[in-house]
Write a structure and sequence with these properties.
The protein is of the alpha+beta class. The protein has a single domain (2-163), classed as PK beta-barrel domain-like (M1 Pyruvate Kinase, Domain 3). It has helices at 40-45, 61-68, 117-121, 125-128; strands spanning 2-5, 14-16, 18-22, 26-27, 55-59, 82-84, 97-100, 104-111, 130-132, 138-140, 144-150, 152-155, 160-163.
Length: 175
């Protein structure tokens, strides 16, 4: 639906006509691009850990849910690089590969773990992107993270091909 990047560590990212995914690194020109972690809290803990959060994908259907909860959120506002539509990202198993556009491939590594910055963006938004499942487990709705397996350009409105990993499937966990 839309693509975004930001060269600085800001919560929201600006819309772009096209982004370039770099194999093993992430979105060219984005503050989170790199082989090792770039998220500030993770860098503070261990700057040598691998970057499993090179690309943030968020489903546009979340915006409708948030509107019902009283929040106005647009593509890029929650810091995602790629806003999707029509794919239940949160239901995909770990290791699912997404072919974006003509050649780029991203492997889903896990769930985005919402942080306090969400409430700094809009008060109460953190509670709106968290829920409880039938067994009381915490459900995170703030999108998924991935790594770039094959680079390429990605444009708004590009098609996405979903390829789940071979069974058995592992559910997404926060990364």
């Amino acid at each position: 639906m839309a693509v975004h990047r930001s060269p600085s560590h800001r919560f929201s990212k600006q819309a772009e006509a096209v982004i370039t995914l770099l194999e093993g690194r992430g979105v060219q020109g984005d503050a989170h691009c790199g082989i090792t972690v770039k998220h500030r809290s993770r860098v503070a803990r261990d700057p040598s850990q691998p970057n499993l959060r090179q690309v943030h994908l968020l489903h546009a259907e979340l915006f409708d849910w948030l509107a019902v909860m009283g929040h106005t959120v647009q593509p890029g506002d929650m810091g995602e690089n790629i806003t999707t539509a029509g794919i239940d990202l949160l239901a995909l198993p770990t290791g699912t590969e997404l072919r974006l556009g003509a050649s780029a491939v991203v492997r889903i590594t896990g769930l985005r773990n919402p942080c306090v910055q969400i409430d700094r963006f809009q008060k109460g938004l953190m509670a709106a992107v968290l829920d409880r499942g039938p067994d009381g487990e915490l459900v995170r709705k703030a999108g998924v993270m991935g790594v770039v397996l094959r680079g390429g350009t990605v444009c708004a409105r590009d098609l996405i091909e979903v390829t789940p990993p071979a069974p058995p499937h592992s559910p997404l966990r926060p990364v």
